[in-house]
Design goal:
alpha+beta; about 45% helix
Length: about 100
């Protein structure tokens, strides 16, 4: 360990940056039933029935809704999982990710 003038050992800790956060965004469409959207939000994002319904309604009214904000890997994994679930059921429901400002 390096010693300074006072004879005490000094330790420098590297400053760690927090990872950049990403938003998972639910994109509204005119084909996917509301109940299915709510079910996907509950299954993939572990939302309650009430929260899932609120997020679904926000996307329905505004065109998009932020579902969750998390690290990039988790955001991309969740968005793909939710989109794939809809695709398997024959719905065009889409989730995207983008960096949070």
């Amino acid at each position: 360990m390096p010693q300074n003038d006072t004879g005490l050992n000094t330790v420098t800790k590297p400053k760690l940056e927090r990872p950049r956060l990403y938003k998972v965004i639910l994109v509204n469409d005119d084909y996917t039933p509301r109940e299915f959207v709510t079910m996907v939000l509950k299954a993939v994002f572990r939302m309650s029935e009430e929260t899932g319904y609120r997020v679904m309604l926000t996307a329905h009214k505004m065109g998009t809704a932020v579902v969750v904000v998390c690290t990039r890997d988790i955001a991309e994994t969740k968005a793909k999982e939710a989109t794939d679930l809809a695709k398997e059921a024959g719905f065009p429901l889409m989730f995207t990710t983008e960096p949070e400002e």
